[in-house]
Design goal:
The protein is of the alpha/beta class. It has 17 helices and 21 strands. It folds into 3 domains: about 280 residues, Rossmann fold (3-Layer(aba) Sandwich), CATH 3.40.50; about 55 residues, no CATH class; about 200 residues, Nucleotidyltransferase, domain 5 (2-Layer Sandwich), CATH 3.30.420. The strands form 6 sheets. The protein has an 8-stranded mixed beta sheet, sandwiched between helices. Strands 15-14-13-16-19 form a 5-stranded mixed beta sheet.
């Protein structure tokens, strides 16, 4: 199972509103479906599984001052995982339950609601309900109220929560709460208006928010959530994963999560929890698919007909298996012109491998002044393992307006690599860093076994990408083949993965190279270029007689 989990620093489930989870388990019932009406606790109960109970605690995790850690929580799970039901439980809690911090317990304090009570432990966070909650459940189409709202409506119309509610308050288009406030199902036309004062919003399946009006709906409601400070509004998004390249709301949120994980932004108030099947699943093998589905659905797998999913979704010749991969394995499938897929690259990750400082390596450098990234990638001579040595990227947002790469820092890192490691080959793209590359060539020439070529001249380091299209295109082909055949490993660096997945196939007169989506695209590929280049330099060193002689002198076999 692959889990991509982005949390704020200091996240601690022990400092979360356990009273909120206890209230949900005491009062909610399962919504429309095979198990509708069954409670989460008590006789004939079908309890929340540990994964979903933990997700609720994550959403209500607090910092040391009692402030909730997240304004936005994203839960990405495979189709049929009861995500909308989970969102419905949280919406009901936001309407009735204690969900906002009210101090730290000394121990023994009780929260009572109707005939139910919860007793706090010492130092546990206490909570109270929201005053006049306004809860919006967002759907994509005019003709439907949305699965989340269906679960909320069922609980209030048929479950114990509705016993004290007047029948007229629970409608198909709106629910009026007895102490003030309301729960509203909305679509793009009704929600994409300023002026709302929501305290909580649920966005169902934001991987479908690809049309301009749906993206505007999300932005408008998200902006409304900043209005009521005392109510501490927030949003929950539940979805199956997105199709890369469609620029859906979910894809944009995933990019935000990656920026946070890589430390490239100061924000931390986004919780992103994505679970997908292992990358090496064989879609033609029954046991492999069963195991993959069991991993991606986790504790919910026992409630599903896994063989039926395999036969009707993966092996049905009338259906696209890549759609089945996305919906039921929750794996983002590649764009049509993608160089490599997420699964192909992830299958080669071996982050546990380390390259000893004393082992010979080669490195490749791709530099930029301001817009593109600047990267440095190493390749282990003995194994061909790829690893990131440095990456400098323009910060997102206003911080990147006048940004330029710190060339002094780049030079420092390159020199530290040569001081610490045994570098036997080093190619650097000539553009933007000419003076530094000349200096590196003079300083490191004696220890390098191969030389680059600029035009008809030899150079210890400089590699002119503009004049070596045939050689680099062949290198792109070789790495692509090595990845598909699992003949290469890499360190699993998220920045390298992002650049590799950003790379697009670019046919030219020599074959197929790689490029960005477009000249102005903000999605960088520079580390992918470095990975291709590093493997190319390794092959050149392996083919050079000086390498074989060196290996004989050191008593190690030449590769």
């Amino acid at each position: 199972m692959v889990r991509e989990l982005v949390r704020a620093p200091g996240h601690d489930r022990h400092r979360a509103l356990a009273v909120t989870l206890a209230w949900i388990e005491a009062w909610c019932v399962h919504g429309p479906g095979d198990v509708q009406g069954r409670p989460l606790s008590g006789p004939d109960a079908l309890p929340l599984d540990d994964e979903f109970a933990g997700l609720i605690l994550d959403c209500y995790a607090l910092d040391e001052t009692g402030r909730r850690l997240y304004d936005t929580a994203v839960v990405s799970r495979a189709k049929g995982r009861a995500k909308s039901e989970l969102a419905g439980f949280v919406a009901l809690a936001e309407a009735f339950a204690p969900v906002r911090f009210a101090g730290w317990a000394e121990g023994g304090e009780r929260y009572a609601w109707r005939d139910w009570a919860y007793e706090y432990e010492p130092d546990e966070p206490m909570a109270l309900p929201v005053v006049h909650p306004i809860i919006r459940c967002l759907a994509t189409e005019e003709t439907q109220a949305g699965n989340t709202y269906d679960n909320v409506h069922y609980n209030l119309a048929e479950g114990p929560l509705g016993e004290d509610l007047p029948a007229s308050t629970v409608g198909l288009t709106r629910i009026f709460l007895p102490d003030g406030g309301e729960i509203i199902p909305s679509t793009a036309s009704s929600a994409a208006k300023d002026g709302g004062k929501e305290t909580f919003a649920v966005f169902d399946e934001p991987h479908l928010y690809v049309l301009p009006e749906l993206r505007r709906m999300y932005k408008t409601v998200d902006r409304n959530l900043r209005k009521r400070r005392a109510a501490a509004p927030w949003a929950l998004l539940t979805s199956t994963t997105y199709q890369p390249g469609e620029e859906s709301t979910l894809e944009a949120l995933h990019e935000r999560a990656r920026l946070i994980a890589e430390g490239r932004t100061r924000e931390s108030r986004l919780l992103f929890d994505h679970r997908e099947a292992p990358p090496d699943v064989d879609l033609t093998d029954l046991e492999s698919l069963r195991a993959a589905l069991a991993e991606v659905y986790g504790p919910f797998a026992c409630a599903l007909d896994l063989d039926g999913i395999i036969e009707n979704e993966f092996w049905n010749v009338a259906k696209d298996p890549q759609d089945a991969r996305r919906y039921f394995l929750n794996q983002p499938t590649a764009s049509r012109d993608a160089w490599l897929s997420r699964q192909e690259w992830a299958a080669c990750a071996q982050p546990e491998l380390s390259v000893p400082d004393a082992d010979p390596i080669v490195i490749f450098f791709d530099g930029s002044k301001s817009d593109d990234a600047t990267g440095l990638v190493g390749c282990h001579m003995d194994t061909g393992h790829l690893f990131v040595l440095g990456c400098w990227e323009k910060p997102p947002g206003p911080a990147g307006a006048d940004w330029q790469v710190d060339r002094v820092d780049v030079d420092r890192v390159v020199r530290e690599v040569f001081d610490r490691r045994e570098v036997v080959g080093f190619f650097a793209d000539l553009a933007e860093f000419e003076s530094y590359i000349d200096t590196w060539g003079n300083d490191f020439r004696k220890q390098l076994l191969v030389e680059a070529t600029v035009g008809r001249k030899r150079h210890a380091v400089a590699f002119d990408m503009r004049g070596r299209g045939a050689e680099f295109t062949e290198a792109v082909k070789r790495l692509h083949t090595d990845v598909l055949e699992r003949d290469v490993t890499h360190d699993g660096d998220s920045r390298l993965a992002r650049h590799v997945l950003n790379a697009r196939r670019n046919p030219n007169r020599w074959g197929v190279s790689i490029s960005k989506e477009g000249r102005e695209s903000p999605k960088k590929i520079d580390l992918a270029i470095c990975a291709v280049g590093a493997r190319m330099v390794r092959r050149l060193v392996l083919a050079d007689p000086k390498w074989a002689r060196r290996r004989r002198r050191t008593g190690r076999a030449a590769f």
